[in-house]
TrEMBL record, chains A, B:
It comes from Arthrobotrys flagrans. It is an enzyme of class 2 (transferase). Keywords: ATP-binding, Kinase, Nucleotide-binding, Transferase. One of its GO terms (cellular component) is cytosol. This is pyridoxal kinase. Residues 129-255 form the Pyridoxamine kinase/Phosphomethylpyrimidine kinase domain. GO terms for molecular function: ATP binding; pyridoxal kinase activity.
Amino acid sequence: MTNTGQSDLVVPPSPDGPPTRVLSIASHVVSGYVGNTVATFVMQLLGLEVCSLNTVQFSNHTGYGKWTGTKIPSTEIDALYEGLKNNELADFDMLATGYVPGAEGLEAVGRIAKDLKESGGGESGTRFFWVLDPVMGDSGKLYVSETVIPIYKGLLPLADLITPNQYEVEWLTGIKLTSPADVSNALSKFHADFKTPHIIISSVQSLVNKNEYVCFGSSMTTTGKPRAFSIAVPMLQGPFVGTGDMFASLLVSRFRHAAADAGLLETPNWMSSDSVIATELPLARAAEMVLASMDKVLKKTGIERDKKVKSLDEGDHGNNAQLKRARYMRAAELRLVSCVEEIRSPVVKYTAKEFKNGVLQA
Amino acid sequence: MTNTGQSDLVVPPSPDGPPTRVLSIASHVVSGYVGNTVATFVMQLLGLEVCSLNTVQFSNHTGYGKWTGTKIPSTEIDALYEGLKNNELADFDMLATGYVPGAEGLEAVGRIAKDLKESGGGESGTRFFWVLDPVMGDSGKLYVSETVIPIYKGLLPLADLITPNQYEVEWLTGIKLTSPADVSNALSKFHADFKTPHIIISSVQSLVNKNEYVCFGSSMTTTGKPRAFSIAVPMLQGPFVGTGDMFASLLVSRFRHAAADAGLLETPNWMSSDSVIATELPLARAAEMVLASMDKVLKKTGIERDKKVKSLDEGDHGNNAQLKRARYMRAAELRLVSCVEEIRSPVVKYTAKEFKNGVLQA
């Protein structure tokens, strides 16, 4: 298949990408979509062999207010990994980690990451790569204990790509994001202080236009300088749940594909040479694909949620505040299984622009 | 979209089917494909909202000889279901159950099935439907305790569709399958003794042609008589693992779609009227689709397994028999994530024939 030069005749790439074996450590809920119930399906749809290690099994996510189920002890995380190693099943190309309950669990994840980093990579011969989503909180609310934060800071230098949200950036860098210049400083700080090769801040409420949000990313140069880009996306009316998990798992898949296309899978940290400009980075290519899928899935979710919410608004919930909360929570669950094509073959609509010296391009 | 009558112009049906919420109770392994790691992905690909309740979390399946992880206690199965009920999340259209470790766990599953049967069905207003895969053993080997068998016999009258293999049929009916007439008797016995509306025996080593295996199915009439069909499929060289789980989860999805196409979802047990002949049953349509996908996935799995096995045969395993066993086991894992299209849009190759009076049609 050749690119004919006519963009409308370009054959779309296979949604499956290169052979990839990924260990995904996150939570599991029986009903609904957060953590591994999002990540597993999304990454499988994009061709990754996903090994899901579930840190909890809950009936539903905690936003419902009530739930049942248990966290697994950190010793069990260690044991499951040992079981994989004993059978030579721990030859992972990638590690993806999301919400981990508590300091001990996070330390167990850190031990696994170190061990995988040392063992070097998977059967495919490509460099081991860790995508760390430092799940700590959102919208001004911390949902892990403060004791977890120094552990995350200790782990950041091991990660190849991190995907903090605005709030998590503020906790990790100490920089409050009130202007594009602040974002620029935070990206520089991650590269400088934690040697983080790749960073994506999935969504910052736009500091320019209130009807959009901006995704920022940067892959550092050999001298540790940022190569930053921004992608502006129209704001969709929330509430949504599990969007951070969907973003991270799409990014794991799309960055793997983009790095393969650029021939970088055997390069340490999949780092592009310094001659590659920000908007040509595999990370920028990947983020564009991720945001294209996000936009489609969230639009579908929003339409169906609003229909449901309308009938809930008209309904009678008696005096049961808990049940009322649960009904609205359920209405907002991601619509994933009806979005197979949107996840596998999205059309890019929002493209990356260079983000230099803290100045956002219109 | 209209059927033009020219078969090469027929627009393929959507792979997604009607809105369906299914509770899938089975085991989970971090690496590889058995139980819910097969069922969840397969059913999601076919448009079902899958709520996966994992009865165990193991590092890998037990065929490797060594594994780590734990079974969840039966009280935890009860608790997770209670958590769903408390949030009105237990409004399932379907229940799919596979391997359940031990008698107490199976009793917990029975309680859930009874409760769902009484509550009647999901939000979509369709009849609740239970697909019970009575996982007890295979190829002459029981892998549950014998105490489980009377519990299964007690649960069969609650199930709408059961999917036993040859060995499980023999345990449940007491009839040894040595001729087509024996199969016919076993199908009749399930309908008569357990009032099971629909039965599929996924694979019986052909009693006629050694190069094929035969899938048998029957949906009973209002008078409890079988309407049986058979589908002969060329034998593929094993070993395979997880095929029973793949068959059952494809069937859950395809029978839902076929029953919807026939307008039967609000009919008790999705039962076709007595005028429908065996080869026109929704169950026959579903089984044809299931076997088409199975054939494609198993062929791909077999080719990649054989390549891997060849290099293992030439390799050195030292004196480590356990590691050798693990390597061959891994080589035989199902190739699922590279088979999205084969699962969503298979082309039917093997069609159902009437199976009457114990006589197999050529």
